[in-house]
Every structure is written in structure tokens, then in C-alpha cells.
Amino acid sequence: MAESMRAVLLESFGGPEVLGSLREVPVPEPTPDEVLVRVRACSVCYLDSIIRRGIRPGIELPLILGHEIAGEVVDHGRNVTGFAPETRVASTYRAPCGHCHYCRDERSIFCTNVHGVGVERNGGYAEYVVLPPASLSEIPDGVDDEAASFAGCVLGAVYRAVREKGRVRPGDTVLVTGAGGGAGIHAVQLAALAGARVLAATTSPAKAKLIEANGADEVLTGSPEEVLERVRELTQGRGVEIVIDCVGQATSSLSLRSLARGGRLVFVGELGIEPTRVSVARMLYRETEIYGVASPSAGELSTILELIAWGKIKPVISDVFPLERAAEAHRLLDERANVGKMTLKP
Known about the structure:
This protein is an alpha/beta fold. The protein has 2 domains: 4-150 and 315-345, Alpha-Beta Complex (Quinone Oxidoreductase, Chain A, domain 1), CATH 3.90.180.10; 155-292, Quinone Oxidoreductase, Chain A, domain 1. It has 11 helices and 18 strands. It has helices at residues 46-52, 101-104, 145-149, 151-165, 182-193, 208-213, 224-234, 249-258, 280-286, 298-309, 326-334; strands spanning 4-10, 22-26, 35-43, 63-64, 68-76, 88-91, 94-95, 115-116, 128-131, 136-138, 173-177, 197-201, 218-220, 240-245, 259-267, 289-292, 317-322, 341-345. α4 (151-165) crosses α5 (182-193). The longest helix is centred in the middle third of the chain and has 15 residues, at 151-165.
């Protein structure tokens, strides 16, 4: 195996152009407790853009971005079992410690010693990456690398939002904000799969047909006030039982005002950094439930991969770029020009 690899190295914060060239860097060596993975696909997440712009505090450079990873095992440390060479694997966002209170309680998503892949440790915008086995799940037959790559982040988070926090049931009406993005379009799919009537809000009318094709009963465009008015018309003034908010602060007011009494709001994404204002009095008398949702554990990742293999989830990928075009992918992401996900191929 080669001693060096190509990687997109983030060496300074800024616009997409800071990812404009490849670097030759040493292939990482796994510790006794790590797995060396040859990256076959790494999808682009909005968190990557937040880190690239220097918005996320505490980031140390240089850094290789990318936490939505699929590939194949090349080697592993002496303490690792169960991952033979050439095993196809996908990764979660987190590298949990395995021994804190939450890890021992099988809630590794809350690990207090976690290191985010592509955040506190190098990620998948490269030909190789080292990962802890607790982050990995085997990819079943019938699931391609591009689809598997973001199962451990976007798809898993949306799955948890719809199933665990939103508790979507047949007959519910669900509003999805940011419905044309990577999280939103899959939230539409999963809410429809759960039997809900899905109202999908987007600021991009050009994305409406694809959103409808993925399960939306109504696609709502226009200003927040126009969308809110339409939500109320479609629900006889009651509002929706659940909102899956894939945008964050910018749509939080719309999301809260769209809820019926006793409704549930689940935040899946946050595209900004401004705090969100919430009326506690309104929450109290309407018994509103508000949740945040994290990306999945390796066990939940396995479930997502099986759902893809069975054809229940149909990953939406707008573009596949070679690694050297990472800057172009980030430009499209910042402009919100993509529908669904974009993936890099080393």
C-alpha cells in the first residue's frame, strides 16, 4: 500500500476556494484500537461548511473535513475484531470513547469524550481514514457507497426525528421545512413512509417536482407568512401535529406557529448561529413539545442501511464529484443549489 494519499486539507478558514487543491499527506496508521478504511465515498454535510467558514469554535487546523463516509476496511489494530479486510463499512459522525457513563448505558450518541469525525479528528475528504470500530457498521449487499455514506448522519438523524422524537403515526399531518435539502427531502420520504400527510416547505420553487416525487402531498413556497397561511388552510386552522425543522433558527418561528395544540417540533438542522427565541408561555398553554435530534449510533446506522437495502428509503443524490472538486460542491451547498445530497469520490 502507498505511504501517501491525496486529501483536501483545510489549512485556513474561508470560502469554498480554501478547498481548491489537493495535498499529498501520509496515509494514517491505525492505533491498536482503530480501523484503516479506504474511502469510496464521502458526502458533503452543511456542518462541513460551518467548520470551513470558522463558525464552529475550537477547530484546530490543518484538518481533513468529512464525516459522511463509506468505504472498505484495509487494516486494523491488534485489539479490533469483526472487521476483516475488504469489508464494506459506513461510519457515524461520532468516534465514541466506549467507557463513559453514556457509552456503558448504550447511549453512545451522548458520549462525553466523543471526537467528531472531520471535526476533532481527520475525516473522509481523503483516500484513507482511520476510525474506531464503534463508529462503523457493515454495508449490506444492494447498497452503494454513495447512499451508504450519509446514512450515519443525515438519514439517521431524520429517521430518529420521525420515529423517536416526532412519533409520526398514520393520519398525522407533518410539516417539513428545508424540504429540498439533504435532510429535508429524506424527512419527506420517511414521514410519508410512516403514513403521514406531508406538507413540504421550500424557498426554491424549482425543487417542487422532486420534493413531490419523494412523497410530499403539498409543496409550500413563498414567505414564512404565506407558508403559515397555507398550513392553516390545509389543516382547518388547527395546525400540524409535527414539524420536522431542517433549517433551524431561520424557520423556527414558522415551525412553532404552524403547530397544533399538543404538537411536536423536532429540530434536525441548524444552518445559522443566531439563537432561537421561544415563548415559554405559549409552550405551556399549548403543551408544545420541542426536541433536538442527534445523528445515530452505529446500531441505528445498521437499521438505516437495511431500510435502504429493502428499498424503503431511496437516497436522493444530486451530484457526485471527484475529490478535487470539493470546492465546487461547497459552493453549491452554500448557495443551497443542490437537491438532496452531494458526494465526493476519491
